[in-house]
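Methods: example folding runs. The two proteins below were folded one after another, and each record is reproduced exactly as written to the output file, sequence line first and C-alpha cell line second.
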Amino acid sequence: MALLSIYGCSLSSATGTYLAKFTNGLARLELVQSGDHMLTGEVDWVSFDTNGRLTSSSASVTGMMDGGAVNLTFKGNAFLSGTSTGAGELGWNGITLTGNFNGGKVSTVTFARANELEYQWTLVAVEKNAQAIAFAREQAERQRQEDAKRNQRVARIEKLTAILKNFDTEASVHLHRWPGAEKTMQAITSDMEAKLQQEHSLEGNGVARGQLAVAINQDDVSAEQMHNQLLSLKNDFTNNVEPMMAIAGRAKSICASDSRPDVASACQAFSQAYATALPQYQAVSTGLDHLESIYQIEHQKHQDIMQAATAAN
C-alpha cells in the first residue's frame, strides 16, 4: 500500500500521473476519476525530430472507466490532428491504450504510473538526447561544408594544374617559332632595302620604279601583319597568362598551409606543373618584349625606306 500511496492511485481508481516513453520523446497523462467513473484530464507531449528540434503540445482528455476497461478521447492540440480515441485496460503498472494516436494510424501506447519527479527526470533525458542529436547534426553539417570546401579546393587546384600544363605546351611552340619570326622581320627589312637600291638603279623607268615602290609598301604590310599577331599574343599574355600565374602563386601558399591527403596529392601535381611552367612564363615574357623591340627597330627602318622610295618617285 505504501507504493500505491506514492503514486497517488489504486487499481480501482484511474486517478494519477502516467508516462509513456518513446525513442524520441515522452507523453504525460494526468487523469482524475470522479465518483461516476467519468475521467477527465490532460495529456502533454514532448518530442524531437531527426534534427534534434524539440516540439511540445497538449490535449484535453475525457473518458470513462468500466471495471478495468478505459476509454479516452483526446481533443484539440497541435500534435494530435483533430480528435483521437483510445481504449485499453487499467493495470497495476499503468494504462495500455490502443487508438489512432499516430496521424490516424492505429497503435498501442503504454502509460506507466509515475510521479512528477520521474517526469522531470525523463524530460531532462529527452532534452539531452535532443541536444545530442542537434549537436551531431551541426557537426555533420560543418563536416559536410568542410568536405565541400576541400573538394572545391582540390578541383580548383587540379584545374589550375591542367591550365599550367597546357600553357607549358603552347609556350614551347611559340618559343620555338620566335627566332624564326625575328629573322623574318629582319629579312623583310633586307628585302625592302634591296628593292630600294634596285629602284634607285632604274632612274628614268617610272613604271618599274613604281612597281618596286608598291612592292616595298607590301613588304611593310606583311611586317605589320606579323606585328598584329605579336600584339594579339601580348594581349593574351597580359589578360590571361599573367593573372593565371598570379593565381598560381597564391595557390602555392594555400598548398603550403593544407596538408590533408587529397589536397596534398593535388598540390604535388600542381607544384610540378608550376615548376615547369614558371621558366616558360619568364621566357615568354622576355621573348615578347624582345620581339617587340625588334619590330620597333625594323619598323623605323621600314619608315625610312618607304620615305626614300616616295622621294625617289
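Second run, written to the same file directly after the first:
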Amino acid sequence: EYRAAFHADALTATQTSSNVLSRELIDKVERVLADGGLPEAAQQSGALNFLGSVIHAQAITLGFQDAFLVICIVFIATLIPAYMIKRTK
C-alpha cells in the first residue's frame, strides 16, 4: 500500500493542464457523459473523477509490480545459498 501511495502521488503530479494526454482523456470522457445526458455542470467533475479512478488503478498496479519485483529478488538471493549448500554435500 505504501508503494501504491507513492505511485499515486507521482502519477498525480504529472496530471496538469499542460499534459496533452490528460486533457484529451478528460475531453473524451466529458463527451461520453454529455452523450449520456449528464448536465454540463457535472460533466467536468465526472471526467475528473474518472481520471482519479484511472490513476488509482494504475498506482495499485505499479505497487503490485514493485512487490512482485522484491519477491523475485529475494527468491533469487535465496537460490545462491541453496546452491552452495547443495554443492558442499
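Comment on the second run: Helices lie at 2-13, 20-35, 40-88.
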